[in-house]
Design a protein that fits this description.
Helix content is 34%, strand content 21%. The protein has five helices and seven strands.
Length: 200
């Protein structure tokens, strides 16, 4: 699996050409988004983690095997940044989601130990309203016992069932649980997009 960092973008004219299917990753700050991406592509530091929530301000593009773009969106839900910065980040991400023609799905990452936040619910609702597929992932499963993880997954699914028909995938950075299922879902949305005549 060959992956390389392409660029960081702050505006639409910074994006790479929309010549490959694209999967974006979104979640609250410190939800484990970078760790998830690193595990999926079998790398340790391809997607950098930050100890300061909200520090990653850009939309980061990666090329996977010259066949797929992976996109790391800025984390949301950060508390210690100015309001005008929050607004500019929100506008930047919304522009990307609305205007990126090759976007196949957004991987929405949730902490299995916590109930979905207002920001999580707003994002999933927004994606549904604009017809963008979502893939729901529950991270931090290694922090709980197996029974606790299953109980939390059922609870979160019940909270999200009215706005998303997707069953969340339980994911563990340590055991790699969920990795194959996540790739299966990504492959599925790419194939469906191709069958529906989406380009590329």
């Amino acid at each position: 699996m060959e992956i390389k960092f392409l660029k960081s973008a702050f505006r639409e004219d910074h994006y790479p050409p929309p010549d490959k299917p694209e999967i974006a990753f979104a979640g609250r700050s410190n939800v484990g988004k970078s760790s998830l991406i690193n595990v999926l592509v079998n790398r340790k530091k391809i997607a950098r983690t930050s100890s300061r929530p909200g520090r990653t301000q850009a939309i980061n593009f990666f090329d996977l095997d010259s066949r797929l773009y992976l996109v790391d969106l800025p984390g949301y839900g950060f508390a210690h940044v100015p309001l005008e910065v929050k607004r500019s980040w929100g506008s930047m991400v919304e522009t990307y989601l609305r205007k990126r023609p090759n976007l196949r799905a957004v991987v929405v990452i949730l902490d299995i130990r916590r109930d979905p936040s207002t920001g999580d619910m707003d994002l999933i609702n927004w994606l549904k309203r604009y017809g963008i597929d979502s893939i729901l992932i529950l991270t931090k499963a290694d922090k709980l016992s197996r029974n606790q993880s299953l109980t939390r997954a059922r609870l979160i699914s019940s909270k999200l069932e009215k706005i998303s028909g997707d069953r969340p995938v339980i994911f563990s950075t340590k055991t790699r649980e969920g990795k194959a299922e996540i790739w299966g879902k990504i492959d599925q949305v790419i194939k469906i997009g191709n069958l529906q005549g989406h380009r590329p």
